Structure formats: structure tokens, C-alpha cells
Amino acid sequence: MTLVQPRRVAAVIGGRQHDLYAAAGPAGIAPDEVRVITSTNPAHLGEVVAEVVLDGAEAIVAAAAAARAAQREWADVPPPVRGEVIGAFGRLVEDNAEALARLVTREVGKPLAEARGEVQEIVDTCTLFRAEGRRPQGQTVPSEMPDRELFTYREPLGVVMVITAGNFPVAVPSWYLVPALLTGNAVVWKPAEYAAACAAALVDLLTAAGVPAGVANLVLADGAATSVGLERALDAGLVDKVGFTGSTPVGRFVGALCGRHLQTPCLELGGKNPMVLAPDADLDAAANAALFAGFGTAGQRCTSLGTVIAHESVHDAFRRRLTAALERAVIGDPMRDVLYGPLLDARFAAGFEEHLASIRDHHEPFGSTALGRIGQASPRRGFAGDPEAGLYYHPVVVDGVRPDDDLFTEETFGPIVGLTSYRNLEEAVELANRPGYGLSSSIFTGDPVTVRRFRRGIRAGMVSVNTSTSGAEAHLPFGGNGRSGNGARQSGQWVLDQMTRWQSLTWELSGRLQKAQMDVSVPAADLSFRLPMPAGPQQ
Question: pLDDT band at residue 19, thresholds of 50, 70 and 90?
Fold first, then answer.
């Protein structure tokens, strides 16, 4: 393996690199034994993007302690001023957009066009929340008593622990970090190890924007150390909120752990997102949407298309269109103009191959010349670049999936889409809800009545009409239900409920005790009063 200008990435705790911090850490917290791994470019596996210093559980506890120490002073900064810091962060991201996008592409293999869109998502998020710093964050409420004032306030929670996946290594973390910081919290961020260079770049930009030392902390650890560290930090009362984006099984663990401390985490988990095609669907538009939703980012989005549920009258015509679209699609080097690049990491490649093994005799795979990894033994026409260099996989659509198939019920996190048919809308909605996820969904139809019936029947937190299951705007709530999450929402004003607690204030100005409900004086009403009936002929 050759090193191509690798960056050494380590934890940032209390504003200092972990190596320096460990030598002078807080009393009672011993330095961790560290190990160094490499973050490699999945499109060119011989290229090391970063050397990553992984810490143990105590680094997480130390970071939470540093955040706790810094949080109160940050909360005392007026919200409009905190908003200006968020605005500066957004401007710095915008000024460094191309460098950050190219780093995203190098480290996780996302096509450059998508990486640029991901960076723009951060800018949009900062634009929104910069203004939130100047919006009223509480209310004045009328009292039922004279000479009494009632108020409500949003207060920061304290320390927010953020744990994110690497498929969106900078955009999704910003959904947590930006509103958490705006509302006066301090954060501890544990990114995916294979996206550590992207995380370090984001923390550098936060620091340059004026976020004080200790307010935004970065820790790098594997899953086992993170679990132990989070548990210890919660037990020590150092973490007030957990935001987690990742798999459903890990989300269940995080939810159970937080529940022991009477905390409600923000869980954004997986998806098995359906696309329903009504008899009047625009099939060309549907095929283009399915191509992007199913195979963009190599199918490694939580909002990736899981199954197309096509009315039996349009099933075959849609299949022909999707086949043609897949055959035209260019796959390969993410620095080029491609539909998708490699899978994120060897671990995800192995998991995807397990899902490919779930294809059964009653299934009809189509869309590519082969299944599995693209290479000399199984080439793909129109491939851009060197298929042997990275973790490239053929796209596949599996027709004939059944409701009890693993391919129908489980998130596959790779370039594979299921296809099935239905007879009536009730059956379509039942099939769409069957996997138990509830993140995103889509329906193609020109009939508003069909849209309304679908929207009311589907359990997904997000519904799209005549467009993809993927794609989120910064000012709409993002999140799901069931196996996709616990109902928490990110993005837009709704995420403020995740990052703040409500506090009410009753201010007595009368100089005496006034008891609500008991001392209220309401003028008497004569409820027996009736208007006289008008005289004259009845109509």
C-alpha cells in the first residue's frame, strides 16, 4: 500500500489534539491505549487517505467532561451571536466547498457531483440556522390571573453526543452539530472511522468559524469502545442527549441505553423505501427516479429505493424502461461523470454480498451482465476507470420479490432494487408498509385522490409524489418511524425540539398569592337565556 499524502487524524478534546491532551488530561481519566488504522479510498484501495488514531472508551468520557466544562459559557453567548458563528461556518464551508467535496469523494467514494451536493447541504443548513439565532425561541402566554406574566423559554440540553455513519460524512453530521451548537449545547462527535478525514476537516472549519475550545469535540473509536464510552459518560451524568444515525440494530441498543437514564435519543436509522407506480404513472419519469433513488451513492443511503411496487398493468413497461436506463448508466471512478462509484468500505461490500446470496430461484435478476463485484472476471460495458482498483459492484434489479423474502423486508445498503406488482391501492399500501420501516416513500400518479389515500395509509415519515425517495431539503423535517427511528425529526425548525428543553416562568406581580384554578374570577353567565321567536307567518 502506498501513502498518498495521508493526514494523521486524532481526537480533538477540549480544543487540543488527543496526543497532547492525554499527557495533561483531567484528573482521574487515564490516557487510553491507542491504535492506528488507515482510511483508504474505496475507489483506489491502494491509496491511504488518512492514518486514524483510534482511542478507547475513556476518550469519550474525557471528551464529554471537556464539553460539560465548556458548555455553560457557550450557552451564555447570546443566540444571535451564536447564529453569527454558524453563519461564519457556512461561509467557510462554501469557500472551501470544492476541497471538501473532493475529500468526501476520495474517502468514501461518492461521485463528485453528489459530494458537491452534500457540501451544499451544509451551507443550506447554516443559512437556515443562522437566522434561527434571531427568531423568537419562546413565547409570552396570557395568564388567567391579573398582574401575572407567563413566559416560555427554550434552554439548551447541555452536552449532546453525536454518532454518525459515513455514507454522508459531512452533511448528516451538520444536521446535528449546527442546531446543537446554535441552541447553546456543547457536542461530542464520534464519526465513522472510515470517514475520519472528512470529520477532521469539518471540525477544522468549525474551529475557524469561532466555535470555542471544548464546545465541539471529536472522538475516534470503534463500535465496541463507543458503546462502553457512551455508557460510562451517561452513567457519569456527562451526556444529556444522544443523536445517532446508523443501523437499526445499533439504534435499538442506543435507545435502550438512553432509556435507562430517562433520555430520549434522536435516532435516524435504516430504510426499506417503497416506490408505488399507479396505473397512470409517468413511467419514463419513474424509471429515472428509480435509477437515482436505487443506485445513487451505490444504494448506500438510508433513503435509497428498496422496492418498486408497480401496478400489474404497468409492470412490464416499467421493467423495460428501467432495464434500458441501467444499461445506459455509467459506473466507475467517482471523480468522473458516473451514476455511482464504489461501496464505502470492505465491511459494506461483504454485507452486500450476503444480500446477493438471498436471490432465489423464484427471482428474476436483471439490469446488468453479471452479479457481484465488477472486475476482469465479470466486466461491465461502459465502466469508467479501473474496476480492479476499487470496491465496484454490478447494479441489479430483482423482479418477483415476495413479501416474506429477505430482499423484500431487509435493508440491503447496496446497488440492488426489488420489483413486484399489485392489483389495487390497498394491496400496494400493505406491501409498502410490510417491512416495518417508515422513513421515505414515493408514489407516481396524476390522481390527487390516489395521492391522498396513499399518504394517509403509508407509515413513512416522508412522502414524495412523482419523484425519488431520496433527496431532502434543509428546511423540511427529516426522519422516520418504526424500524427507521423513534419519531425524532432532523432539519428545519423541528430539530429544535431535539436540542432544547422547554422551561416555563410564572412571574407574580400582584404582591399576593394567587392560586390558579381556585382564585379565578369569571363573570356569571345566564346559560338559560333564549332569544324570543319572531312574530309573523312561519316560513
Answer: low
Cell output for 473 = 431539503
Q: What is the pLDDT of residues 350-389, one digit of tens each?
A: 999 999 999 999 999 999 989 999 998 999 998 999 999 9
Q: Which residue has the cell 443523536?
A: 243
Contact 352, 376 (CB under 8 A): no
Q: Grid coordinates representing 102?
A: 473532493
Give the position of cell 466555535: 211
DSSP characters over 72-135: HHHHTS-HHHHHHHHHHHHHHHHHTHHHHHHHHHHHH---HHHHHHHHHHHHHHHHHHHHHTTS
Q: What is the pTM of this model?
A: 0.94
Give CA 363 to chain center in angstroms.
32
C-alpha 107/C-alpha 104 separation (Å) is 5
- pLDDT tens for 135-176 read 888 889 999 999 999 999 999 999 999 999 999 999 999 999
Tell me, what DSSP letter sits at residue 211? P
**Is 268 among the residues known to form the active site?**
yes
Residue 504's SS3 state is strand
Domains, the chain, in order of start with CATH, read 7-135+156-269+492-498 (3.40.605.10), 273-465 (3.40.309.10)
For 81, the enclosing helix (H) or strand (E) is helix 79-95
Give 313-359 as a 3 state SS string.
Answer: CCHHHHHHHHHHHHHHCCEECCCCCCCECCCCCHHHHHHHHHHHCCC
Bridge partner residues of 48 (DSSP): 3, 40
Q: Is residue 381 classed as helix, strand or coil in its secondary structure? A: coil
Rg of the chain over CA atoms, in angstroms?
27
Q: Which of 58, 132, 193, 268 is labelled catalytic? A: 268
Amino acid at 518: M
Look at residues 213, 277, 210, 307 and name the one whose alpha carbon lies nearest to residue 454: 277
What distance in Å separates the CA atoms of residue 310 and residue 319, rounded to the nearest whole number?
Answer: 9
End-to-end CA distance of the chain: give it in Å, rounded: 97
Judged on CB neighbours under 10 Å (0-12, 13-18, 19+), 410 is: middle
How many other CB atoms are there within 10 angstroms of residue 397's CB atom?
23
Closest of 252, 288, 280, 239 to residue 60, by C-alpha: 239
